């Protein structure tokens, strides 16, 4: 049984983007937790988790997404998910998190929305 | 009396004067002298005791080493005491019943452990070897005995015995400790497993718990218990993660739900309480949460009224008396414990005669049916619809068979809880 999972991160004007790809479950969640703790995040930024390449997400994976949202809350930052796969969207609805997490179809959409809401990108907050 | 050092060969019965003496040897006179000198010196001051006794046991000759060990002067022993006078009571008996006959028979006896008695009554453990010296005509003349101080050896033996006793004690203690821990683990595990469910008048209840693996028990939970009056509370749920930590969350969840239900049986209040407790406990660690349904049952004229609150849990399946199936959904109920506040939604259901209601955790609907295919909620509903009207125990028995058929495909714990109202006699409503 393959449990391939990888994280990648880069920073845009809106803030850090964490991409989760592969299978996020009990065996791989620790990698996600580590990435969430390590990602540089400042007040007022957007922490965006891109799930475009996520093939599987069990309760440990949900736990990682919740940890990411807590990380954002703790930093006074915003939090959103991009490209939530259909299977995960169904689960998020079942567990009531579809109304807790902001979601965007793509990371570009998230970026655009953030820019629109913040006319002077990340210059004022220090 | 003779001085202790004055009599090397002349003491005792006079048969001691023929001790072999080293031959003077070749080359180095100084070396020879040294050897010459050492013969007597070796006898007297050897690192062991020498004792010569007549056949009746009278001490004929004894070396300085042994005199020193025993605290006697030579004159006190030679010619006037017997070897038995140097032995303890037990040693004396042993000497007379075993050693003396063996010496008479075989002419020698070796490696005998004895206790000698010193002048001041002290005891000296020794190892003795005795040889009978015969005269030219073959008659026994003398018994020569070498005596080794066995104090160290005795101490060593006692140390060995003590060490063995200690090891045995330690092993027994370890066995007792292991038994204790095992018993504790079993008790704790039992406290995590769903309990035997009570009998509820007017309702049939059946449940099944399927642990995905023997050592990772405790991810799912259910319980059913009396509330005030003739009302009953029940819950079923699934905590995130696996293993010991998940089991700890399960335990906390179960006891919180029961306590909260006693405090305020309103289903939303119960889940609010659980959310607060779990969030406070696990907020700073890796987030821990559960999905849960909590319901209260109140008997009505025809069956039971059910108020169900869901916290992000898979919808229950309702099978009406005519076999029609539907899902009891309460959209918007959030999983419990992940956020400081959570919203929960209730739904009311009237359970009538012949109706059954199934609650389950997603071990069932995420079971791999073959390869990577997973058994879905839709498939489960079709499976149940095909059964037609069923009561709680038939339903659980059927699903238990289904889970067994999945075998290794069930890679998560699965809990099943079914409630049914017995059909009324006569024609169906």
UniProtKB/TrEMBL annotation, chain A:
NCBIfam families: ant_ant_sig (TIGR00377). InterPro entries: Anti-sigma_ant (IPR003658), STAS_dom (IPR002645), STAS_dom_sf (IPR036513). Belongs to the anti-sigma-factor antagonist family. This is Anti-sigma factor antagonist. The lineage of its organism: Bacteria, Bacillati, Actinomycetota, Actinomycetes, Mycobacteriales. Gene3D superfamilies: STAS domain. Pfam families: STAS. SUPFAM superfamilies: SpoIIaa-like. Residues 17-117 form the STAS domain.
